[in-house]
Amino acid sequence: MLIFLHTNATAAERAELRHALAAEGARGPLGALPIGAGDVIGVDAAAISELAKNRIAHLPAVNHIIPIKTAYKLAHIAANPAGTRVKVGNVVFGSRGMPPVIAGPCSVENEEQIIEAAKAAKTSGAVMLRGGAFKPRTSPYTFQGLGPQGLRMLARAREITGLPVVTEVMEPGMVDAVAAFADMLQIGARNMQNYSLLIAAGHSGKPILLKRGPSSTLDEWLSAAEYILAAGNPNVVLCERGLRGFDNHTRNIFDVTAIPALHSLTHLPIVADPSHGTGKRSFVAPMALASAAAGADGLILEMHPRPDEAMSDADQTISPETLRDIVQKIHAMHIALGRPTEDEISDAATLPIAQEPLSYVFPE
Ligand code: PEP
Ligand code: MN
User: Fold this and answer.
1) How far is CA 193 from the centre of its chain?
2) What confidence score (pLDDT) does residue 364 get?
3) Residue 136: CB within 6 Å of ligand 1?
4) Which tens digits make up the pLDDT trace of 264-289?
5) Which residue's alpha carbon is nearest to atom 3 within ligand 1?
6) Total-model pTM
7) What's 86-344's CATH class?
């Protein structure tokens, strides 16, 4: 269940709630019972009697309770029906306004390349830069990324263009190092169910771009997001990047339906990645437009100043000119569909999650 606290609940009232939940054997995420300074807590209520739930609902700290039967609770739409907005610098995902476009190469290759790409991304209408420094490559013989050097180059590209940067982190031990340079951390498809990485990302204090695992259901994906939320980080953006299919005409099966489906299941923003979703340059524009039409809260596109020379994912990498064309069409489509302009957008906020990032209070 989700317990919504009164924003002005005192420490003593919160403690009373904690003791009541502990006495009922209630469990919060990760087997603990977290009650921090925030205002929404997720609890597995399976073992709690209706009578006890009723008693808990009437404690002074509690505003209201919503029963949630799904495996994920904080990620559930009921936790924040107005929709969560995630801010990365001055870029906002989930505003319902013009969807922000993130663009840049698959990999950071050298300083000149990433700076050139960042400038091209900016002049083509993208508002954020992507680029991998740590690359999860299928073959150990292919380019593995520049590592920490690549992070410094991304920071330089940000300094020059002002574009916030998203880049992948592959292991829990590297979260702090990547967070020191990046504005947003990407958890790649292959790592969607790396739970220690999800928890470390939850403790990082940075917005997280959580890609969908190549064969994950929506429930598995939302449960992965729950790990990050449960660890105290409300700033999660989901990224649809395609699923493993049986047909080799495309690299993956790009699940456009996941976008409206997720909007009915979760309050978290959803970004579409038609580059990995299709694996083919010529399919990126049509699927980018389809994603925007389906209600994507943003796009992430692989773009390189010389796409054929990209050291990874060249086949799916578009040129700056194609990027510009996509951005223009998305803007035109947004207006044609009568979607809200910047001054009409609602004021939904980030989910005020009641977790303390590093400490859990175990029931006695
Ligand atoms: C990437 O963004 O370059 C990447 C490796 O993506 P994914 O994890 O979706 O394959
Ligand atoms: Mn890539």
Assistant:
1) 14
2) 38
3) yes
4) 999 999 999 999 999 999 999 999 99
5) 106
6) 0.94
7) alpha beta
Q: Is 244 in the pocket of ligand 1 (CB under 6 A)?
A: no
- Nearest protein CA to atom 10 of ligand 1, as residue: 189
User: Which residues make up the environment of ion ligand 2, defined by Cβ < 5 Å?
Assistant: 106, 313
The neighbour count for residue 364, using CB atoms within 10 Å, is: 8
Antiparallel, parallel or unpaired: β 165-168 and 128-130: parallel
Burial class (CB in 10 A: 0-12, 13-18, 19+), 341: exposed
- pLDDT reported for residue 31: 66
pLDDT of residue 362: 38
> Within its chain, how far is the Cα of 346 from the centroid?
20
Q: Which pLDDT score, from 0 to 100, does residue 363 have?
A: 38
Q: Whose CA is nearest to atom 6 of ligand 1?
A: 188
Q: Residue 152 to residues 136, 166, 207: CA-CA distances in angstroms?
A: 19, 13, 19
Q: 3-class DSSP state for residue 235?
A: coil
Rounded to 5 degrees, what angle do the CA atoms 313, 284, 294 make? 130
Lowest mean pLDDT among 3-7, 27-31, 212-216, 317-321: 27-31
Q: How far, in Å, from the CA of 276 to the mean position of ligand 1?
A: 7
Strand partners, 187: 210
Q: Which two tokens stand for residue 214?
A: 């190549």
Q: Is 276 in the pocket of ligand 1 (CB under 6 A)?
A: yes
* Domain limits, the chain: 2-79, 86-344
